[in-house]
Each structure stands twice: as C-alpha cells, then as structure tokens.
Amino acid sequence: MRRLFESIKIAFQSLVSNKLRAFLTMLGIIIGVGAVVAMMSIGTGAQESIIKSVQDIGSNLIIVTPGNRQEEQQGFKQMLEDDKDKEALKVEDVKMIEKEATLIKGAAPAVLSSSIIAYLNKNTRASVYASSEKAEYIYNFEIEKGQFYTASDVQNSANVVVIGHTVINKLFGKIDPVGKIIKVDGKNFTVIGIIKSKGTDQFGNDQDNSISMPITTAQHKLYGIDYINMIIAQSTSENNIDQASKEVEKILRRAHNLRTDEKNDFTVQNQTQLLDIVGTIINIFTITISSIAGISLLVGGIGIMNIMLVSVTERTREIGIRKAVGAKNKDILFQFLVESVVLSITGGILGILFAVAVSIILNKFTILEPVISAFPIILAITFSTIVGLFFGIYPAMRAARLNPIAALRYE
Amino acid sequence: MEENCKDNNCIIEIKDITKVYRIGKIEVKALRGADLDILSGEFVAIMGPSGSGKSTLMNIIGCLDTPDSGKFLLENIDVSKLNDNQLAEIRNKKIGFVFQTFNLLSRSDAVRNVELPLIYTAGGTAGNRKTKIFDSLKSVGLIGWEKHKPSELSGGQRQRVAIARALVNDPAIILADEPTGNLDSVTGEEIMAIFQKLNREGKTILLVTHELDIARHASRIIYLRDGKIFREEKIDNPIDALEILEKMPRLEDKLSQ
Lengths: 411, 257
Fold this sequence. Notes:
The structure holds 2 protein chains of 2 kinds. By secondary structure, chain A is an alpha+beta fold. Chain A contains 14 helices and 10 strands. The relative contact order of chain A is 0.18. Chain B is of the alpha/beta class.
C-alpha cells in the first residue's frame, strides 16, 4: 500500500515535470472519454425528456388513427387509400371500445384542427383539441381555474371552451378569461376553464397555444364532419398495454365489418412502441459515437505507449540507480505501470470534466438537456485504466528488464 | 592471504572468480581467476589501469553481476547462487554504492535521494525512516540542506548526499567507485575524511581509484592487472585526511592576508 502511494507520487512528479508533454499525451484519452461521456449524457437526456413528455400524456395510452400505416404503401395508391380511410373512425367506435373492451379503462375521441380565436379586437390562431369529457383525465388536461366541459356539454354540443396559457396571453393579457365570450372561427363560445401549462413537447411545439371543446360542438357547429381524427384509449395498466392494443384492434375490425382478408382501415399504436423506436434511435447514435471514441482511446493508448517508451529511455540512469540501491524488477515494472495508468486516468478525469463542461454549455444554449449519470463515468474510468495498463505494460517490462550495470553507465 | 578468512571475520571471500563478456563475436576476459579476501572493518583501495577488471570486480562485489565461475561469499552467503530478486535484496541491505558521477535523482531533494533505498526495504515505520534519513545526513554533515535538489548543491555536497544514501540502510560494506574523480582536491580530501570517519566507526570500505594519493588513505591497496590480483600493499601509516585539510590553505585565510 505504501509502495503504491509512493509510486503514484513518483508518477505525479514525473508528469508535473513534463506538463505539456503529459497533456499532449493525454489528449487522445481526453477526447475519447469526453466524447463518450458527453454523447451518452446527451442520449440519456434526450431519452429522459422524451419519456417524460410521453408520461405527461400518460404512459398507458393507446392511440388509434385512421388509415393503415403498418403496411408499406407508396405513391398514388397510398394517397387513394389515405383518402378512402380518412373518415374511417367515428364516435360510435369509441362507444364500442368503451362497451366491449375489458382491458380499457376509458377512451376518448378527438378532432384535431386549428382555428382563429378572437376576443374583442384581438385574434390568434391556435390548435383545437375537441374531445369528450373523458379527455380531462385521458389526455391529462389539468384545469387550473374554472372547470372542464361535462358529459352534458358534450351531449348538448354546448359552446364552451377551455383555453391554454399562450392563448390567454395573446388575447386577454392580465384579464381573467373565465366567463368571457370569445369567437372561434366566428362563432361565440364561453370560456369555462384554464388549462394548466404543459410547456413545449419533444418537438418544440407550444402545447399551451391550444383550446379544447366538446367534440360534438366541433363536429357539428364548426367543421361539419361526422368522422374523428383520433381515438385515445387508456389501458387498465401499463403492463397489459400490448394486449389492450390487440383487443382494441379486434373490436374495431368487427365494428368496421372487415373480412379476414381485408386490411385494417386504421392504425393502433401505443406509447411503448414509440418509446422502443426512440430507444433504438438513441442506441444507434450512442454506439456510433462510442466506436469513434473507442478509436480515439486506442490512438490515445498508442500515444501513452510511445511516451512511456521515451520516458524509459530518458530515465535509464534513474532505473540503474534504483536497481543499484535494491529495487527489484517488479518494483520498476510497477513504477512505470502506475505512471502510465496515472497518465491515462488523469486523461480520463479531464475527459469527464470536459464532458461536464460541454453538457452545461449545451444545457444553457440549446434545447438539449444532457443528463450525466454514474454509468458513463464509471465506464470512462474503467476504460482509461485498462488502456493505461494495456499500453503501459510493454514499456514497463522494458524498464524492468534493463541491466543495472548498463543502465548506470547510460549517458 | 588465504589464511585471512580462517577466523570467520571475513566479510568478503573471493576465490578464483572469472568473468567473460561477449561483445558480438569478441570475448573479453574481464576476470581470470581473481582471489580477494576482505576483513570486516577494513578500508581497502583497489587500483589498476583501465581494462584491468576493476569495474567488473566492483560490479560482482556490489552484487550487480555474478561471476561465471569461482566462489564469492559475502558475509558467508554464496552470492553466485542467488537470483535477481535475492541479489536486489542484498544490494538493498548489505551494500552502499558511491559513484564517481554521484548518480542522484535530479528531480528529488536530498531527503528523497537519501530515502531511496528505504523505499525498497520491506517494513519500517515512517518515523523510523525519518530518523534513519536524519542520522545519515547528519553523519555526512548535511543538516540544513535537506530540501535542496542536486542542482542546488556543490559537487562535494552532492557526493555527501550520495554517501548518506549509501549509509541509510546501515550496510556492511560501502563500495566507492572513484568517489573523488569529479571533485577538486580539497573537496576530495573532505570526502576521504568522511570515509575515514565511517571506517573508524566500523564500516568496511572498498574504494576504487586510480590516484595513488587517494588510495593511500586506505589501510591496504590491491593492484589489479589483466583480470588478476597482481600485487597488494599494506599501508602502515595511511594519510589522515583531516590532517591534510588542516594544512591546506583555506580561502578565508588567503582573503584575510
């Protein structure tokens, strides 16, 4: 133990006496480790923010959209099919799912559009999420003030809306909007509630620049349609989401009277599939960067080996002196091995600091939110130790094998 | 000479050792049957022209090298049968080297240089180490210079650091290879005074030199030629380095005149 401490001290002395050389030698390791840690942090950060935004919506959600998107279809045929299936989903489908599905807690239809919203002499364009009263919990519309529309509002196609913060800022400023009358595409609506701010989604869209109203109102009074754009269903638990998706598919096929040889005219997707895709993309990204970093570590290791060989030659006399006063071969081996490991670990630590700095800068000036976790740091330290040992062993063995008489006479 | 070792007071017993070096295809017979006995507490000087085998003999006695044939007992241990690690241990504990070129670690201060052999000695506490280093530096008169690096010391001081390093593990023998070769005569004399003091305190000292004036500080001179002991000479009245130093004109004296 004392000898290890002694060797580390000697190693640091020799590094400090050759600062520039040591730094240049470590550069390969610094860049390699820095790249791995920074990229893994960015990857983790991206994954976490996507998972978070998915969980904001609800992680046991099943989304049904019209048209078949699982099949690889292209060109003109795709356009025809899209057009044909555009109106495939109806409010009745939602009722069917709610009635028959055993693994579904609740389902809500949605009409997604955008409209001009006006209050007095101000107007703005905002997204319209029209749905049923169930959207409040299925789509996580938290109401900050006022209330969400009720089942009877949906039943009666009431002209009521809940509105997001961006819309309020643009139209009302500091005025309390609840109870006020606004115009949506020229028709009067009463504001009955304020949606709690959700911020931007993972694609940078402002989720607060939106309003929500009963689906029947949107279908019959605003857009004049009988179909819906989307069904959002909630499975009873996160674990059975895949079975629940299958169940929804079966019910809809029956509801749409599809024969066994006919394709779905809708697409069922769930959040786990989405997360899987995101995970795969991030893994590919991480593996690519890691291989580049691996090459950098290899080059860094060769640099360390090179400098250690130079160091052994330069210090031949020192090795001779040490052997003359009683150093054994293994003592010399150990000393030089410790030196190369100290060199590579120092490089690794500087690399981690570099990555931390990069992460902080990215966090401040970009939308990326890198998260530095313990795993890449442990990985970096482990790998730089291995690089130091692997590329240090040969120079250290050469030092250990030097003949003391020849070493003492070396000029 | 052979009778010397009968009473077991012999620290070095060398009998008919040979050593051949091969440099490419040429064989160099460095030692061709040398015999040498050294008693414990002796001060012996070895002289001889270059190529006489002095260095080879020193390397063998210093356990840096082993003989091809013959017998070499160091404190009754047959060194020729030991492996590298055991030789390193003997060098560490029983031998103190002093070189012509000092051979100090230039980046380390006096204390770190003197400490060097202790690093490779198993056991011993930190406090114990400090005492040993202090005692060594004290016996060569370097108290107050502990934190100086070799580049901040004079030649004589550097050689004294080297002697302190040789002493720190309390070895049986001190091997000095031309210790005054790089020093002026006054400083050389000061170094010889230190060796004589150590010898009086009981250390066995083996000194290689090519200057007769230096060799005559020892109690016995051994002349080497062509890889053999050629002649030896007992010195009944060795030069006393302290006396010489007394007689030498000092710089201060000259300035005050």
